[in-house]
Amino acid sequence: MPYYKNSDLPANVADVLPKHAKEIYRAAFNSAWEQYKEPEEQREETAHKVAWSAVKKEYEKDEKSGKWVKKKETQVERSPVH
Prior knowledge:
CATH superfamily of the domain at 6-58: ChaB
Order of helices and strands: HHHEE
Strand order of the largest sheet: 1-2
Strand content: 5-15%
Largest sheet: 2 strands, antiparallel
CATH topology of the domain at 6-58: Rna Polymerase Sigma Factor, Chain: A
Distance between the termini: 58 Å
Radius of gyration: 16 Å
Shape: elongated
Structural class: mainly alpha
CATH architecture of the domain at 6-58: Orthogonal Bundle
């Protein structure tokens, strides 16, 4: 059961993620739904796991507010080459 709009997402996703994260979730879920067709009884569970994994690559749950926020980019410090 692919999701065609963000509003189609389950409440435990739609109610907690910002718009961009919902788009990531929906795209990853739909892709996994198409890719993992067997075993049928685990298809939806697998697609949800893949979708959450995709979201967690770019978003994290803020410990203080409990809201999902975009991860800050980490800058690698480089020492000058002599």
